[in-house]
Amino acid sequence: MDRYQSFAKSGFGRLVVGKLGLPNPYPLRRHTPGKPALDGPVLLGGSGRLVEPVAAVCKSIGLDVAAEAREDERYAALVFDATGIDSTEKLRELYEFFHPVIRSLAPCSRVVVLGTPPAQAASQVAQRALEGFVRSVGKELKRGGTAQLVYVAEGAEGNIESTLRFLLSGRSAYVSGQVVRIGTGPVEVPDDWEKPLAGKVALVTGASRGIGAAIARVLGRDGAHVVCLDMPGQGDELSAVANEVGGSTLQLDITASDAPKRIVEHVTQRHGGVDIVVHNAGITRDRTLGRMDAGRWNAVLEVNLASQERVNQALFDSGALRPNGRIIGVSSIAGIAGNVGQTNYATTKAGVIGMVDSLSATVAGTGATVNAVAPGFIETKMTAAVPLVIREAGRRMNSLSQGGLPVDVAETIAWFAHPASSGVNGNVVRVCGQSLLGA
Ligand code: NAD
Question: Which PANTHER family match (predicted)?
């Protein structure tokens, strides 16, 4: 909990926050292995092709599902199948379902609306309209609640489980106001949903600290052998992370000309290939454009984008990325909204989105996927170095009024990495608490 959050929870703080209408951050409920996914029942509404598959998934997660609102019940999640909405008039069903219950949700509640991709729908207008509804609900929810829209392609009804398990749990604590697209793809159902990555090999770049270390921990927790990669100078910290997660280390600079070759050799010789590649290593070298020397521009372009493209090319050319492989990029909301002093950084982070667009089309239908997260304000050394006023603004300017934690980014990556997420391809999901920037 940050200092403002502690203040806002104190007796005096509550009074001041209430009277002045200041942001009121609620402590987010995060995933704890062995604990229930949600603290309460799910109310499931709507009348489309997904009602039955959603009910089946909720039951397999162990959630209590109600089809009719019960008096005085505090629901932990409201799930609405909007695939049956085939005209603008029928959008009224959203109002009829949500209006009576939206004010009596449990803390850290979940709202999930499922639709048909507008281009495939009987009413493109009505399905596109769902976005505005969900994003507004996300802004209205209090006490750590989140809202998402999931467009499920025709024929992808069997591909929703990993996504619902992510969205209907504390794993998605800092993800809100997002639109996720699920397509068809061969679903690899894990033997154990608590260890879905058992037998998989994951490579995480920049794994010695911050978000990269959290990614290594979460992928390790989920059963993967994690190859932790970082700069040679980061050896001690890197070994500590690798030991903690039962993984191994690979010390190299990803911008080195022989880096792609060394990565391919390492994963093929030691593990027979790699299943999951997370391009997390990234740097900032901020200056406004007129004051930026070429060195700053080049360094950021090399680490955050060009080197990743070379590694991807080498992985594809060598066949080192195994079938149903996962490539996961780390973009940023700066790549979506732009940011003063970050023309170099934002160029690369928008480029990562371009990488997702281009490679996801290449791998479509093969079972492999390419996706990215776009973090907002995450509490790390990188953001601790930001001047206080800008830092406070970044922390509060989102629907959850707080910064996210590295684990929030890591959980989102673990959902992409999941063997049952083959239908989740070409998505860029923001982990930003529904930041006002670039919204
Ligand atoms: P960090 O600086 O704490 O960690 C980055 C890691 O990458 C370091 O361990 C560093 O040694 C490694 N690295 C840098 N250059 C490398 C190279 N050439 N070869 C190998 N390793 C290299 O940063 P972080 O805050 O944990 O950020 C991780 C990623 O998340 C970055 O891509 C960053 O742009 C992105 N991101 C962070 C935030 C945030 O709020 N912290 C927000 C949006 C996006």
Answer: 3-OXOACYL-[ACYL-CARRIER-PROTEIN] REDUCTASE [NADH], SHORT-CHAIN DEHYDROGENASES/REDUCTASES FAMILY MEMBER
